[in-house]
Sequence to fold (175 residues):
Amino acid sequence: MVEIKIKGFGSIVLKLDWKSAPNTCANFVELARKGFYDGLTFHRIIKNFMIQGGDPLGKGFGGPGYAIKGEFAANGFGNPLHHGGGAISMARSADPDSAGSQFFICDRDDGFLDGQYAAFGSIDPTDKDSFKTLDAVASVPTDANDAPLNKVVIERVTVSPDEPVKEAVKIKDRF
Fold:
């Protein structure tokens, strides 16, 4: 389990699916345990679609200095996860192997993303508090570029001790 605590909103608790996206999970957990996400923002928010964070630059162009292989069908990887409401997935550019630290959480069923992006976990469907937090963040006012008018800050990302400790395989130096 991973908890994303968002300043002024509450927490989103996610269960990671190591079987479906092992390197993506390893990468996210590795970054979270290092404190990489702490203090970053959700820089892109689109109501009825998703909230996106994990960019150290806060503009959608930054990352951890490397990329990982995209674990999704269109990139030759058999990831069966669905981009339903509450799913967490890696953001990337047009390059299928460009994900690094940016992630998004689906605000609704975004099944059209299945097989195109590396989903790697989700909110438990019975976790009403996490969905309430997700909905509150997804509802903040934004500008014409989908940036929130007021910063939405990730206070910290906490990884439960029962999550595996595995080093992610990095494939490219970036950013």
User: Anything to note?
Assistant: The two ends are 28 Å apart (CA to CA). The chain has one domain: 2-161.
